[in-house]
Design goal:
- 15% of the residues lie in helices and 36% in strands.
- It is of the alpha+beta class and 495 residues long.
- Strands 19-20-31-22-27-28-29 form a seven-stranded antiparallel β-sheet, with helices on one face. A six-stranded mixed β-sheet has the order 2-10-9-4-5-6, with no helix packed on it. The protein has a six-stranded antiparallel β-sheet with strand order 21-30-23-24-25-26, with no helix packed on it.
- A hairpin with a 4-residue loop joins β28 (439-444) and β29.
- The radius of gyration is 35 Å and the shape is flat.
Length: 495
Amino acid sequence: MTGKVPLFSPGSTVSSALPSYVALCLALQVHRLVSAQFTVAGPDHPVTASLGGEAILPCHLSPRMSAENMEVRWFRSQFSPAVHLYRGGQDQYGEQMLEYRGRTELLKDNITNGRVSLRIRDIRPSDDGPYVCFFQSSVSYENAVLQLQVEGLGSAPVISVEGHQDGGIRVVCRSAGWYPEPKAQWRDLQGQVLPSASEKISPEANGLFQAEIATVLTEESNQKVSCCVRNPRLNQERESAISIAELFFPRVNPWMVALGVILSLLAVLIGLASYCFWRQHRAKEKLQGELKWRRALLNAGWEKARQYAVDVTLDPDTAHPNLILSEDRKRVRDGDTWQDLPEKPQRFDTYPEVLGAEGFAGGRRYWEVEVGDKPEWVLGVCRESVSRKGESTFSPEDGYWVVWLEEGEYEAGTSLRTPLPVSVRPSRVGIFLDYEAGEVSFYNVTDRSHLFTFTDTFSGRLHPYFHPGLSAGGTNAAPLIICPVPAQAGGNLGP
């Protein structure tokens, strides 16, 4: 009797071959992952850039490989929002930091070799510091840290004589527009450093630094001195000198010294006053011309916006129980009394708010609201998805693009509130939504002037937003009124 011999005898050949097969698969998988890994490298020294200029931050992969299908992200202290983001074969600006919008460019000429560079234009003091270059493929990611050093050479030092002190003459040196903090010192003819009576390095509003250093000159000391202000990064300096005549020192004749100083200061002040008057006159003429041109431009923008007028009505299902709406749903005011209304998920329950019934997911829309002499109000647009329950902040981060009047101040609800310079009190406000352009503009219909424009990226439906303010039985009891726009202004409503 014959039988077939099995290929593997139970408990012997199979058990010995299986570990080898598993080990081979693991080795192949590890090889595949290791072969897909890479490192990211940048320059081994800081990249320097001058204020107002541009900086190029280079970064590359090792070993050389294409980064066309990778994510390339440049960021500062936080991963998101980014300084610049490249993903899916193109630049992505939705996650970009506001302060870098319009100032960055990813140089991709050698991206197939794994080399990219970030160009930053209009360099500012806030650009100074570390940057992270981050690459991510489908199986691996790495990054490198680069240092950008911003440099700015300030103005030539201005030296002034500020009277007598401690038996000598006090002279003060001032210079502005430096970055980073400069070093200042007084020197004599031989280049020796003189002791300073006071020294102050202080930041300016624009992020730059100004230096002020004083010294006291005596008749025994060298009477010709220079003030030197130096940028430690650039190792460059600016210098000015002054010479004090003997007659200015108190030992000769204090009255003559005082007279000389006064006459010198008077001559300098007259010169400065004349120069300042001339500069002010020139600046005034230039400003008047710019204001005239800008007003004409903004008026044209308002006229164009009115072509997209739409009929807006109030949605009673969203109205806070304190609000009173008119039958035609064109007026709303705070009744200062909680009404017994059905509880609905879309109804606001904290602030006296109400939305427009119409939602917009594209195109251009314009409407006008009569605010009259109300001392408080909030107007604009918001996302349909905003929270209706509890408190929220009026900012784009929470889905609101609004302006308001409160305690006599007009402001725009940016991340950090933006004061609005209003010369003529608006009794009617125009709101213009350009969905595709990502803009919400506000106009003072009273004098046809532009108030403010938000720039953002929209998603989902947006609704007109109304907040008449708290009445408390006072002057704010008047309603907000949605006004009809003249028929001749109506036009193409967009998609």
